[in-house]
Amino acid sequence: MFIDHLFIHHLRSNSLSGPLPYILQSLHQRTGLFMAVLVGLFTSTAWAQEKSAQGAVLDAGIRLQKSIGLYYENGLTLQYTNPRLAGQRLYVGVSYVTSRLGSAFRSNAIKQDNYLVSGTYMFRPQRHIRPLVRFNVGYFSADLGSDLFNSLPHSGLLASPEFGLCYSPRSPLKLTGSLGYNLTAGNGMSGPGTLYPVFVQTSLLWNILKK
Amino acid sequence: MKVFTAICLILCLTVACSKEPAITEDMLDGGTLFDPSLYQPEKYLVSRAIPTPTPAQANTPVIIACHGYTATTFEWDEFRTWLGNRTDVYLSQVLLGGHGRTYEEFKKSTWRDWQEAITAEYERLEKAGYKNISLLGSSTSGPLLLELVSSGYFTRHLPPRNFILVDPIVIPSDKTLSLVPLLGPMLGYIDTKQSAQEDKVYYHFRPQETLQQLQKLLTLVRRDLEKGISLPAGSRLTVYKAKQDPAADPISAVLIYKGVKLSTGGPPDVQLIDSDRHVFTRLQFVEGVTEKDYKTQKDTFAAILAQALAP
Questions:
Q1: What is the pLDDT of residues B39-73, one digit of tens each?
Q2: Which domains, and CATH codes, for chain B?
Q3: What is the dihedral of CA B151, B153, B155, B157, to 10 degrees?
Q4: Which UniProt keywords are given for this protein, alphabetically ordered (chain B) (predicted)?
């Protein structure tokens, strides 16, 4: 509900127009529902038992992110793999990180949301320490807090590669750390001003299919 | 192999750090050109021109105009020209510490040195008895003035009547500034692309040490804004911010709007200007200036003057 509220709030404050922004707005509006359905679906007992038997992995956890030079943005992340996805090397995932759960919590920092869909390739999947590369795409939106600033860019597409390591000391637990680069950062002439290029992230994940 | 790699790395870093810019005598950086306020301060500073004001002079509004990073008093020369021979307002053009001198002096200066020139003029005017002072800042002077407020400077001094900020920077447009603490020592300095005329009134080279100082200042002020900054009682804040700006991201205006409160609790006055120039009030030596740019400049000068004269 909280996430849905955020989407609706953003939809009201967004001044975009045209077909692409409409699609993005629709996606934006539905992402909260999508994530809720995803969690519900993946964690339904029967499905989980079946998938676990098939060697599927569904990691759920928290993602802590810091833009170098700007905000802390934290949130939730999910990633899924099974033996058919490059022998459990390839993960697909979704993440939501927001400054509302970071720098903007009880402060005047700008409230901004990042919705990410990602593909991750994990090297040496059977080892404790696994190098990883990830590519995220998604949508960024910032609540500038007043109609006065409607003419400033406050939303846009996200695209970012990440490079890092995953540490899995025992089976259901994973800790990942990576360095990412936003390809669509703002530059004063276009793009949201609080979308910074370089970020670091840490995720603490638990395989919820593991029995 | 490891030793070889380490030696190569150290050599690379040493070479990178020892890089010196190719400064010429035609540049402000070179030690032959200096800001004219250093030779004739009485032409630029009210505290030097009228050190013992009459009661009428002491009540005349004084605008202290402060320039941006790498600039000089030149940045507000057009405002002085526009004011002409008016006697109902005085203009002090402050040269920030470390600026308008030499590359080496700039390199060793800190943001507190930059700011100190503002407080020195402010305190001279206050001591002389001037009662109606407004602070006008462009670009980096924006955060320098905001830091004075957040640090409580004006609880110990006469509060200014107005804070007027033109294209203040809190968030840089070039986001790689945030990487300067990491990459700066390897770069040594940054070469700017500006005209030969601008080279005489703006530093051409930006030492990484000063970029680190700028980054420190911006981070400090951004965090202060996140916590909230209250203006002194009786002070107003007006921000003029270009909608597009290659140096100070327009989002800076949003952070100031959200982060500063008047003593009455209201927000500051923020006006977005239809311009894509940084410090759109300085048009001399700028290429491709249009009639619209001149009109915007004049309108803003008129608005600044009206604020300084307002009771």
A1: 999 999 999 999 999 999 999 999 999 999 999 99
A2: 2-19+26-309 (3.40.50.1820)
A3: 180
A4: Signal
